[in-house]
Amino acid sequence: MVSLPEGSKPEDLAEVIEGEYEQVEEDVGIDAKKKTSKAGKRKAPTYRFVTDLNLRPTGEDSLKDFCSARKLGDNQAYTAAFVYYLEKTLSVEKITADHLYTCYKEVSVKSPTNIGQVATNTANRNGWIACSKSEGYKISVQGENFIEHDSLSGVVKDTSGTDS
Predict the structure, then answer these.
(1) Residue 79: exposed, middle, or buried by beta-carbon count in 10 A (0-12, 13-18, 19+)?
(2) Where are the domains of the chain?
(3) pLDDT digit string (tens) for 94-108?
(4) How does pLDDT run across 61-87, given as a tens digit for each residue?
(5) In this structure, which of 33, 69, 112, 164 has its CB flanked by the most CB atoms within 10 Å?
């Protein structure tokens, strides 16, 4: 049995219980809002345009022509094409996210917010490139095959087994 404080009535006790219950409910709501408002706030990476990168070299296809000759449907395919072009055509030794950003701008394709994550996905999901902090991005054998064979527009593969 609950004893009432001196001078209080049973009706007062009901009000106190309701007040405490409401207060607890409000406190839970405030705490929940604080926890969810801080979660998920990450600053998007920023990139710099590589000004000394010549994507229209004399005697070679420009990057824009190189990409338009291929069927590149998504950012991973574009990333593989950019890495291939930078490594094989321009002989860039250490390809960075800034190089890839510059390539996206050159071919007028919307660049992804997190280019590094797209490059990691390209490496992990397709195996088209290799990612290394010390060496940058490199094209893999699978990536070479994709760019040199699979992505070419208008190329019909002969599956008949004859040379004619």
Answers:
(1) buried
(2) 63-150
(3) 999 999 999 999 999
(4) 999 999 999 999 999 999 999 999 999
(5) 112
